[in-house]
Write a structure and sequence with these properties.
Low-confidence stretches: none
Strand content: under 5%
Order of helices and strands: HHHHH
Structural class: mainly alpha
Shape: globular
Mean pLDDT: 93
Largest sheet: none
Radius of gyration: 13 Å
Length: 89
């Protein structure tokens, strides 16, 4: 399991001008524990979205009360990709 320090170091290297929130690490820990292959596939589809799909997704999140800037969404998707690369066995 990736430690909190390793997670924050990784994310800070990607987004040095953006603060990384503790909530992102909590989500990361949840993702690495996923065993359901259909859920993993959904997350893989998210990280593979193009610019237009990201905009649509961001608008859908906003309509459900989760407002993200484009940079925050990029950071969130980078966290998902990092989590998928480090799934618990």
């Amino acid at each position: 399991m990736i430690t909190k320090k390793e997670f924050f170091t990784y994310m800070s290297e990607l987004y040095e001008d953006e603060p990384v929130e503790d909530e992102l690490y909590k989500t990361f820990k949840s993702i690495v524990k996923i065993k359901d292959s259909s859920h993993i596939k959904e997350l893989q589809d998210l990280i593979g979205m193009n610019h237009r799909q990201r905009l649509i997704y961001r608008n859908a999140l906003a309509s459900n009360g989760k407002e993200y800037t484009p940079k925050q969404l990029d950071q969130y998707l980078a966290m998902i990709e990092f989590a998928l690369d480090n799934l618990d066995s």
